[in-house]
């Protein structure tokens, strides 16, 4: 009885794991893609056009013009790191809302042109040749004959703070409109939907002690009722006291001080090696060592079919042996 109940619970766990697998893998992939994109954006945000010192207009342009060569200096150990293979500490909100999941995503866009004299990425008239100072820029009201290019960064990062209510099917959303251009709002929304699905799928999976599960299973009312019938025949009834004492004694022996029964079952469960027919594998691994999704899916199919056959056989037995005594039956 316990073996059947444990097998049923194992089948349910395998089914849940199989259903959650695709969502979890897609979510992990989306999270990795999003994280990689964020690192890349922080690298690209360093793209810069250096200053060009002032010189006369003919010298500034020269016979071949004046080339503007951008520079891109990246972090030696990678973006968002404090050293080789050392990621910077994760920053959390100072006052997080316990009812919501929150995530911050950056997008990038071209930097807006400066509207100030001597502002970044602008050309101005300058009084002194060779001076790198932006204060050297003058208006045309002053008699000058030099040109100067003021450099600066070409791109800028925009922050998007998104939240969603926990334990709901709500999507991540920002209080304000989407900021930045790449990745686009749609790209971010699609990735966050996969991450949401991953979290929801992971929430359906639980990990508990097999001994605790076994104890809970055996103490369930339907198991007690089945144990009473097994011990006292079809007239056995735990709720009516027919076999109750025997069932309680058996459970006490199983989970009392000596715990002989539960330790024996636990030992068998830990050492159990499913054969090839059950997992499709080599049949050389213990159940708790099997991590292959294909093997777990095969085991789910095997035990589902086996459980179905068992239930059908039990139905036939119940139909052949009605619970109510007939005229030819003798009460026990």
TrEMBL record:
Residues 70-84 have a biased composition (Polar residues). It comes from Trypanosoma brucei. This is Variant surface glycoprotein. Residues 55-97 are annotated as: Disordered. The lineage of its organism: Eukaryota, Discoba, Euglenozoa, Kinetoplastea, Metakinetoplastina.
